[in-house]
Amino acid sequence: MGEPLLEVRGLTKSFGGLIATDRMDLDVTEGETHAVIGPNGAGKTTLLSQLSGDLRPDAGLIRFVGEDITHLGAPARSMRGLARSFQITSIFKDFTALDNVALAVQAHAGSSFRFWRPARRERALREPALEVLRTVGLAERSELMAANLAHGEQRQLEIAMALATRPRMLLLDEPVAGMGLDESQRMIRFLQSLKGRQTILLVEHDMDAVFALADRISVMVYGRIIASGRPEEVRVNPEVRQAYLGEDTLL
Amino acid sequence: MRTTIRASLIFLHTALMAVSPAAAAETVKIGFITSLSGPAGIIGKHMKDSVELALDHLGRKVGGLDVEIIYGDDQRKPDVGKQLADEMLKKHRVHFVSGIIWSNVMLAVAPTVTQAGTFMIGTNAGPHELAGKMCNELFFTTSWQNDQTPEAMGKYMQDQGIRDVYAMAPNYAAGKDMISGFKRYFKGRVVDEVYTKLGQQDYQAEISQIRAAHPKAVFVFYPGDMGIQFVKQYVQAGLREQIPLYSVYTIDEVTLPALKEVAVGIFETRYWSPDLKNEANQKYIGDFRKKFGYTPSFYGTQSYDGILLIDSAVRAVKGDLSNRKGMIAAMRKADYKSTRGTYTYNVNHFPIQNFYLLKTVKGAGGEVEMQIQKTVFENHKDAYYQDCGMKW
Amino acid sequence: MARSPRALTLAAGVLMLALVPVAAELLDQPFYVDLFRRIMIFAIAALSLDLILGYGGMVSFGHAAYLGIGAYAVGVLTHHGIANGYLQWSLAILGSALVALAIGAVSIRTSGVYFIMITLAFTQMLYYLGISIEEYGGDDGMRLAVRSQFPGLLDLRNATAFYYLVLGILLLFLLLGQRLVDARFGMVIRAARSNEPRARAIGFSPYRYKLTAFVISGAMCGLAGALLVNQTEYLTPEFMHWTRSGEIMFMVILGGIGTLMGPVLGAAVFLLLEDVLSAWTVHWQIILGPFLVLVVLFAKKGLIGLVPDEAAPGG
Amino acid sequence: MILLVLEQTLNGLQYGVMLLLMAAGLTLVFGIMNLVNLAHGSLYMVGAYLATGFYQWTGSFLASVALALAATLVVGIVVEVVALRTLYERDHLDQVLATFGLILFFNELIAIVWGRAALYSSLPGWLSGHMQVLPGVRYPVYRALVILVGLVVAALLYLMVTRTRLGMLIRAGASNRTMVAALGVNIRLLYTVVFGVGAALAGLAGLIAGPIYAVQPGMGEQILIQVFVVIVIGGIGSIRGAVVGAVIVGMVDTLGRAFLKPVLSIVLSPSAADTAGPALASMLIYMLMAAVLAVRPQGLFPVR
Amino acid sequence: MLTVDALETAYGDSQVLFGVSLAVRPGEVATLLGRNGMGKTTTVRSIMGILRPRAGEIRFEGRPIHGLPSYLVAQAGLGLVPEGRQVFPNLTVRENLVATASNRLGNPDPWTVDKVFALFPLLAARHRALAGSLSGGEQQMLAIGRALMTNPRLLILDEATEGLAPLVRVEIWHCIERLKASGQSILLVDKNVRALTRVADRHYILEKGRIVWTGTSAELAASEDIQHRYLGV
User: Fold this and answer.
1) Is the pLDDT of residue D30 over 70?
2) A150–E contact, CB cutoff 8 A
């Protein structure tokens, strides 16, 4: 293994008296699917938002492809190949599904300071967008308003938008949250299909999804990574079981 | 079917009648612009009531023709006045525009009206531009040129040997005219000239400055609402006993009901006073009090005079409203019963008239009123008529 | 697309506007040329506001500033004896674009109520600046000695020629606006309005686009200001009074936010209502006020919402 | 010169106190109900008219103050219940427009009832005099009283917000109204009470302003924008911010008008100072607001 | 004392609850279990009147409370400790407790600030601190104390141990046990099966907006399959 694609050192973020990220270190290697698990409120989404540039850390360093990106904003990180999905579905609700993805394509296809030609007639934007929709299985729903898609479909669209930016690394925030069993199975199968081709940092609660997808797992509690390793290692780690899965031993 | 056609024809006929200019000629249309809203609204009321009284006296006819008055509220804003004038000219097709309290409004309105070939009969504002370079044969005023009244006060104060005067006025066309008029005859030291925002209501900060400057006297021009506020606050601050106050267009029948005793002893100069003894004035004041229940002001007399002046012009051309030359010639004679007595017009269509010194006193009945003390100027001409190119 | 009810409404509206001078001539009511020219000028201002308000989600409560800048550009040059319209109007557009750039650069960093308030604050500054410059009439403002002159092209003193020029500009801006909002640029500002964090996450820096839209909008409104001062032939800081911003905003909402025809319709209905109501009673605002409240509460999509439309994607 | 500065400081304080009375209600409504209420100035106007009206009717200044305060409280509650309740859930744009509509309505209503011309309310004799503040400095009794009343009201408000249950609920509501309701507090009633109190304070400002300014339709809008500047500078929703903001704005505005011109004339030529002085003075508070927002986008005392 | 019958709730167009039915008896500790996004919090919010249910019936001590505004639901005797704690950050600890305190139903031995401090000594030490400056565990204790100060007949805790350090969680569980011992009825919403089987009497498992399993602690503890299928343990 060479240089990690993403390197986090001493990352710290607190809200008032609440320490959400506590001197955290994390490495993600090119090509792997790395899951961060932990109970709700452990600071997973806060971590992801700092990685994507939506939140400014109080201290620490984030390095991506060898470059220090700690002080870059979200758009700049997207341009460098970091794409995120949101835990609470975040799409352009009053645009069609295709528009949503085409916008993501547009952001990475030359200047958007173009004032005359209708963007909806630009094949260079529409065709790649449609292609991505096809990959996630939303091609038939492309002309529907995003707001009118089912919840699971909106989650798929969320991933499609991230993929359309052709990222080097995907940051996925609970991609199967709120999905029924069938929907989450489908999503998991789709994400499995990306494995190997796409580096993924996955924050997830659903253990089925995590163990189905992850090459490596880091366990986060109280803003800190308490253990990191291959799934089977983590599964048997007593510290993890105690901290994450229950406190029976203490009761 | 037939009735429908007939009805349509009648409708069409009426519609054509309504818009054809020939039909309009049977009525004199006068647009009267004044300030009806806000703090200055009280002045507008004086003027509007006087216009109505004038029409009563004329039997609701002007020059023998039916009359239609369109009132407009300029809100003391020149742009609003201009817009009103445009509307009166283009939408209502008025023959005369009259009224206007404020010189800044007048400067916006008068050229608009005269350029459209319509008469502008000013009944208060007299900015120096209109007396001089911008004078126009279609512009007449029944009031005065702004500088004249403060000239009288300047002369009086000069004669009294008063020195070190602090001068204040609102920051607009008339305010500057007033101070320059004052300085034309007052030769002592002007400690400071302060211009405040037109319509300002709180003068406490300025009053503090006056106190710090400790002049020998204060000269102000604060018409209408501004006068009420300024004088009250001047008294409240305890300056009245420290520094005497002289004013023009500040203490009058508009402000006295609000000021009452506070104003007693203050001097003003003016061309008119309720106690001016002539038949027209006594009739006007008597009927006005009877109809409206309060004492009229010079704003009212001027507006009343304005309607009478228009009446004299229309009468002279026997109702031929297209005869502009005839009407101009008639108005130049000032041939009507003015409340100030007889007067003549200067070449610039501004009156040549007397100016008096007035004092606020407690009258016999205990009410506070203004009384003429003496005549400061007789047949006083304004300082700008030589700049006016009109010859007649 | 071409046959949608809205397209027909647009065509009918344009036809009607084009016929106003003819009708006014026939009825011998030249006043209506003035009235409808005024309506179209405010329609341009409202349209410019809607570009950032409806499409960009920026609640600018200081749009009257650009009306003022445009008007002052014309008025000041005329005051110094330069009546050349090309120069005046270029300055109006350029000047308001620059001011919009300055105001936008600061205010777009804030959001919500603070954006409303800071745009208002800047406009108040300009308003008081206008009031204090004695040279250009201060409080009183000043008459425009002559209308802008376009030697060899047309004469604005001719009410009809001026009318058709304004109509032409309005139509041009409608077309430009349509292209703008559908082009890549428009997609970005609409996306940023719809969901700014998402727009950032896919790689757009909304700030630059919003600022550009803000500047374009300011420039358009500046031209409206240049037209307005020619219309009234009077320059006054009142053009920049905050209630004017409120009125323009109301026109947008009344007509239909986030559409191009909406602001035009809104301006027409607002000013006609004002004309009709004020002729009927001096207390017309007691009707207009509650009407405004009702529109806000119950006609969320504005009047244009009453005209059916094919589900136009990407509001 | 020192006496002049002192006197102008008093003037600034007096103006600041008026702003504070307006700002207190507005900032609470803004902060806890998230409502941009442009019509707050109308309540100020209503207070001024009612006080003037009651004074003419009763002939007693103190009685008119009491009656006008009670009446504006009622008017405020009626306005809240009838018109504003539905606006809490709307976005700021809707609120701005709807309350702009209310302004037109109120101004016109007042114009119909009292006419468009301004009313002048006079003061009873015991208030219309002046007092010796320092040797050589006389200050109007009424304005001194205004300052005193304002400071007392500010202190009471501060105690109310920091010490009482109502104050705690107001602050709690500003940060999380759902939770306040879920813990058994009738938040609607709380809103109505707060709005009523805010209205009464605006009414108090209005009736105080009556004898200083002209009582006329539209008088509320002349002060409203300044009040917005106050609460934006202070931090929306913060009473402390409103107090500090009001004093700052009152001082900056008054002292700017009084001293900017002379100060500038030291640096610039007199004619340039004549032009720039008043221009800068009237822009000063807006520049201040822009500067504060540039450095602290949530105002000086952010609520959260 | 609380019965929920065929509750349906939607956010706009998307329905989240499809007929949830459950009941809590006086003095008992019941739980609502389920993975994230299954509708647990939506159920709580619907009960509390924060969300308006589309259909179904909610009764508390025999009185229908569905459709009531949330303050009336609370006044009827329900005390909420919400998901994410939601203390008032700009109020001090003491103020948080006092601001909404009440005893409308006439608890003969009402909660006081001192009693809450006795239950959570950590809070007593910080009573003048702003709630926003507390640690997560302290905030959770404060949120529980705040709800207790309304003297509720039924206490609802939504994800009360989420994201807390193990030691703190243990303290919270001990506190709940003590409350139970004092006769307090409690509805717990959580994912923490092991701890819950000790504290609680009965369990409801929520899956995609429906109750899919009900049983006692013993039954739940015995059924590895149910635990795995619905709770991912």
Assistant:
1) yes
2) yes
If pLDDT is split at 50, 70 and 90, which confidence band does A245 have? low
Q: H or E element: which one contains B291?
A: helix B279-292
Cα E159 from Cα A242, distance rounded (Å): 18
- Same domain (yes/no): A48, A71: yes
Is A244 domain-assigned? yes
Give the strand order in the sheet containing A6-15.
A18-28, A6-15, A59-64, A67-68
Q: Are D291 and D49 in contact (CB under 8 A)?
A: no
Residue of B73, B202, B225 lying closest to D118 (CB–CB): B225
Domain that holds residue A149: 91-166
**Averaged pLDDT, A7-28:** 89
Among the partner-chain residues E49, E79, E91, the one whose CB lies closest to the CB of D168 is E91
Chain E CB within 8 Å of residue A188 CB:
no
pLDDT greater than 80 at residue A39: no
Residue E233 tokens read as: 């343990």
The residue behind tokens 């239950």 is: E119
Q: Is residue D58 part of a domain?
A: yes
- Name the DSSP class of B382: P
Look-up of token digits 């400061």: B376
In percent, the amount of chain A with pLDDT more than 90 equals 63
Choose which CATH entry (2.40.33.20, 3.40.50.2300, 3.40.50.300, 3.40.50.1820) describes domain B148-270+356-380: 3.40.50.2300
Residues of chain C neighbouring D288 (CB-CB closer than 8 A):
none
In a domain, E60, yes or no: yes
Convert the pLDDT of each residue in B182-227 to its tens digit. Answer: 999 999 999 999 988 888 888 988 998 998 899 999 999 999 989 9
The DSSP letter of residue B132 is: T
Phi, psi of A108 (to 5 degrees): -115, 15
E63 occurs within a structural domain: yes
CA angle (A180, A182, A183) in 5-degree steps: 65
| Percentage of chain C modeled with pLDDT above 90 | 65
For B21-144+276-342, which CATH class? alpha beta
State which residues form the domain around D130.
2-218
8 Å CB contact of E194 and A246 = yes
Inter-residue contact A161 to A89 (CB < 8 Å): no
Residues 168-207 of C with CB under 8 A from D: none
Q: Is the pLDDT of residue D270 over 90?
A: no
Strand, coil or helix: A22: strand
Whether residue A248 sits in one domain with residue A172: yes
**What is the identity of the amino acid at B326?**
G
Which amino acid is present at B282? Q
Cβ-Cβ contacts under 8 Å between C and D: the total is 121
CATH number at residue E29: 3.40.50.300
Q: In this structure, what are the phi and psi dihedrals at residue B319, rounded to the nearest 5 degrees? A: 80, 5
Query: Does A195 fall in a domain?
Result: yes
What six digits make up the tokens of C167? Answer: 């109509």
In this complex, is the C-beta atom of C186 within 8 Å of any C-beta atom belonging to chain A? Answer: yes
Q: In angstroms, rounded to a whole number, what is the distance separating the alpha carbons of residues A125 and A96? A: 14
The contact set of D with C (CB < 8 A) is 30, 36, 83, 86, 90, 92-94, 96-98, 100-109, 111-112, 221, 225, 228-229, 232, 236, 275, 278-279, 282-283, 286-287, 289-290, 293-294, 297-298
Quote the number of domains for chain A. 2
Report if residue E153 sits inside a domain: no
Q: What is the predicted ipTM?
A: 0.84
In a domain, A197, yes or no: yes
Q: Tell me how many domains chain E contains.
A: 1
In this predicted structure, the answer to whether residue E176 has a pLDDT above a threshold of 60 is yes
pLDDT band for B81, please (50, 70, 90 cuts): very high
A117 contacts chain C (CB < 8 A): yes
**Whether residues A58 and A179 fall in one domain:** yes
| Residue D227 covered by a domain | no
- Residue D260 covered by a domain: no
Count other C-beta atoms under 10 Å from residue D175's C-beta. Answer: 21
